[in-house]
């Protein structure tokens, strides 16, 4: 790698002229997209250097689809509206694996706090909300790559998914928005508990209720009343509903789904931004 | 250091009765401080003297009321973004991201300081070359030695052409050769750019050698201020001795007997953690 630097060394080895002139600041609305792009770029660079996480995180969704999906397809115990259970399950598992990545994103921000990286970013001309939005979308990008892996696994298992590029774009939007919300939920908890171990505990405690209290595994209609109420307040349900509608063509409420996901992400960003100062102290 | 010019030198940092408390502990207690433009100013003191807290107030990390801290005339409470644009900051921990290459680490800071795309690669390369990391730029920072990480952090801070470089214990835990290397790069960069440098350290010998002026901090306040030579000669005069005392002697004189009481568990732990990562 070091044989081919991006810029010829002879040009910059002795020059420092650019280090004397401060860059012209971006202003207004252009700050936010620039910071989001910067954070997403970092996330992609890290994934390029170390893909281990990508592979290890593919194991669990593969097992859900292979074992749970195949078995329940045979049992036919869950009303799926006439489609094989593994097809019905696939969007739920895409949403679940994306959520699992996002819900532990707060651990990364605590690690960055301990390493001094967060403090250094907070001393740059980046409003806290822009930093959190950047992190949230970076988590979304990470989840999106994970979603692609699960979609490929599902396709290999014979799930009849759409290949309509517009609908796939909608899938990407739903995954990114939901991951932005769950990562902000995680960063909000990080801002409250302030330690990695406590955050791990909280993450473990809420992931399964979120997963089982959603329509990822079974339709809302067969849930007991109290669980239906939980599911109604659970953004994961709206994500799964959107993914199912887009990928399988089942009846969905796309307008409401995307509305809820966008509002949830915005609220998450606001909550996590307001607590970021506690991590800096 | 002073000259006969009519106007007094502009101030890079002005702290006016700066106070910050954690619960009942007054970490910084009515600190008055003026760092002149273009100088290397050393804030010295033992663990727990309040150096890092003062730095965190100046860098806008800790919120303080208006009127307490100004950076080149900008109030840190009212003009936070304007202050941050003038700062390059290297925290006490080794804060480079080990999962990114040296070049990517610097490029991130070029991006968040709004360096336009067309000059980003060149500016990043110049910053890396300025700290002697051009050859190692495409290796992961996780493979760097402690001294290299410090120089990488320096490059991260330099890429936005700051007017004030703030370094919190930049040589903590480094071996003597790496320490000299870091200081040589700080000096070279300052000579090339004319930026102001505010550095904290508890290595008195380094401060004596590299700082234009020092402030000796103890229990949240600056107890003595001047060039290292002024402080040392001043103590020699007061004691009436011929042998010139060291800066450490000056510090013991200023701090009195309370020297060992400073430095809570948290400071020591944080110092050890950094030393561990460096070592």
TrEMBL record, chain A:
Start and end residues of each ABC transmembrane type-2 domain: 52-279
Membrane topology classification: Multi-pass membrane protein
Chief location: membrane
Coiled coil: none
Subcellular location: Cell membrane; Membrane
TM region positions: 54-73, 93-111, 144-163, 169-194, 206-227, 258-277
Pfam families the record matches: ABC2_membrane (PF01061)
Keyword tRNA-binding: no
Protein name in the entry: Transport permease protein
TrEMBL record, chain B:
Alphabetical UniProt keywords: ATP-binding, Nucleotide-binding
Coiled-coil segments on the chain, per record: none
GO molecular function (one): ATP binding
Highest taxon of source: Bacteria
SMART domains assigned: AAA
Record keyword ATP-binding present: yes
Domain ABC transporter: start-end pairs: 13-244
Pfam families named in the record: ABC_tran
Family annotation (PROSITE patterns): ABC_TRANSPORTER_2
Keyword ATP-binding on entry: yes
SUPFAM superfamilies: P-loop containing nucleoside triphosphate hydrolases
Protein name: ABC transporter ATP-binding protein
Organism: Streptomyces diastatochromogenes
Organism lineage string: Bacteria, Bacillati, Actinomycetota, Actinomycetes, Kitasatosporales
